[in-house]
Amino acid sequence: MAKIVMKNIKKRYKNSDSLTVKDFNLSIDHKEFIVLVGPSGCGKSTTLRMIAGLEDISEGDLLIEEKRMNDVAPKNRDIAMVFQNYALYPHMTVYDNMAFALKIKKMNKSEIDLRVKEAAKILGLEEYLKRKPKALSGGQRQRVALGRAMVRNPKVFLMDEPLSNLDAKLRSHMRAEISKLHRKLGATTIYVTHDQTEAMTMASRIVIMKDGIIQQIGTPKEVYDRPVNRFVAGFIGSPS
Ligand code: ADP
Ligand code: MG
Fold first, then answer.
1. Of the ligands numbered here, which is closest to the C-alpha atom of 18?
2. What ipTM describes this predicted complex?
3. 46 Cβ below 6 A of ligand 1
């Protein structure tokens, strides 16, 4: 039984006369770390937003643990999404940013405290809990964004280019941190990037997309050694 099944998923935006996602088919197992790659505008964010429920699915089926999710409200999908721009609340402390979603759920204070402190420990944020986001570095802010998703203990993590605002050195550091976090928590993850290095180093499987169509699905080694076409070879950097 796969954890997430996407069957013949299509997306047509209201104001558009062509399909943005043309026919997306993918089964994701428990604990996988899927990296979805492809050039800008190929439909990666649209795909993630459909899974999160932030965009309607025009056609096809989205199943999570065998339950059809197409019409389930985002807050009931048990999915946490991390964005490129962090979207932290500037007026709140790190602690309150991380606790916010749990407070809304009316979770009791001691359970919130436990979860926030546990996440802060894992992410190395224990000393920063009383700070506001503006008093943090880019990498620390991105960690708070991860922590905010983690405390919800979601079934599924979606990350949309979470590192693309960081400089190269920090990106490489955070890449390792996110992989470590995934090994520790084991949550099923779909990670979007246009960075080949992230794809090759982080993925259990890579999905390569172009113009709304999946070109190839495989382990980093499979797509590198046996790219199905020139586009994949060029994108992954396989020798030709
Ligand atoms: P990616 O994340 O791979 O860069 P997106 O999923 O953001 O690609 O966008 C795919 C295509 O869909 C682009 O051509 C984009 O302009 C278009 N698009 C994205 N959002 C909307 C929208 N809300 N309405 C209409 N078209 C959109
Ligand atoms: Mg995008």
1. 1
2. 0.99
3. yes
